[in-house]
């Protein structure tokens, strides 16, 4: 499901430069200076409308959060949501995930979140999948020695592909679930998509790996 584009989204983003950094590459290797602390960095690729990353930042003030979204309109929606709470441990980037190596230095990120990424089911689009060899090599560069990746998806095919890909690239599995919300007592921060899928009775597939 694609969100409707916002007219003049690029220009309107200028009103949110306290949240959406103008230069996505300016902090590489120096994110601790941006946040003015040495706290670990958690990075979400595909922030969407911002529910997950905002709630995460509010719940965990000792962690710095960076969210990346390629769509200007979607980034603007997330910035508007974040502005209402304005946590100091959160910022957004309007950029392409293929530029990760220019955004973060080696070992700068403690955790990566892949929440309901586009599965790109056609074989010719495999390289675009966020768990393809291309991206896993980037993740290895920016993740710390004990850095983790958490993935949630409703797409069984993408989940199975990710299991194989992560295993082939020697990530160590910490947790795998075919029904993340089966345990009703587990405290889970959800995305907007996730809530819709739960209401439809769809299973949420989940995995966590460590570098």
Using brief descriptors, characterize the structure shown.
single chain; Rossmann fold; alpha/beta; 211 residues; 7 strands; 8 helices; 7-stranded mixed beta sheet
Q: Helix coverage percent of residues?
A: 25-40%
Instruction: Identify the overall geometry.
Output: globular
Number of strands: 7
Give the averaged pLDDT, no decimals: 94
Major sheet summary line: 7 strands, mixed
- Coarse structural class: alpha/beta
Looking at the overall shape, the CATH architecture is: 3-Layer(aba) Sandwich
Domains counted in the coordinates: how many? 1
Radius of gyration: 16 Å
Order of helices and strands: HHEHEHEHEHEHEHE
- Using the coordinates above, name the CATH class: Alpha Beta
Q: List low-pLDDT spans.
A: none
Strand order, main sheet: write it out: 3-2-1-4-5-7-6
In CATH terms, what is the fold-level topology? Rossmann fold
Please state roughly what percent of the residues sit in beta strands, choosing from under 5%, 5-15%, 15-25%, 25-35%, 35-45% or over 45%: 15-25%
Distinct helical segment count: 8
């Amino acid at each position: 499901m694609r969100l409707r584009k916002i007219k003049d989204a690029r220009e309107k983003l200028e009103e949110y430069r306290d949240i959406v950094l103008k230069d996505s590459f300016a902090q590489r290797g120096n994110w601790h200076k941006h946040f003015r602390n040495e706290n670990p960095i958690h990075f979400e690729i595909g922030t969407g409308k911002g529910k997950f990353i905002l709630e995460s930042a509010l719940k965990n003030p000792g962690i710095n959060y960076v969210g990346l979204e390629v769509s200007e309109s979607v980034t603007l929606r997330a910035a508007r949501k974040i502005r209402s709470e304005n946590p100091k441990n959160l910022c957004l980037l309007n950029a392409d995930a293929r530029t990760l190596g220019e955004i973060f230095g080696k070992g700068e990120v403690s955790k990566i979140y892949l929440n309901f990424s586009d599965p790109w089911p056609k074989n010719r689009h495999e390289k675009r999948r966020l768990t393809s060899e291309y991206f896993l090599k980037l993740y290895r560069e920016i993740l710390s020695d004990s850095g983790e990746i958490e993935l949630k998806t409703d797409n069984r095919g993408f989940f199975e592909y990710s299991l194989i890909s992560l295993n082939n690239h020697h990530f160590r599995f910490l947790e795998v679930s075919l029904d993340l919300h089966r345990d009703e007592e587990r405290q889970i921060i959800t995305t907007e998509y996730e809530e819709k899928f739960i209401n439809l009775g769809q299973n949420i597939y989940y995995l966590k790996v460590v570098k």
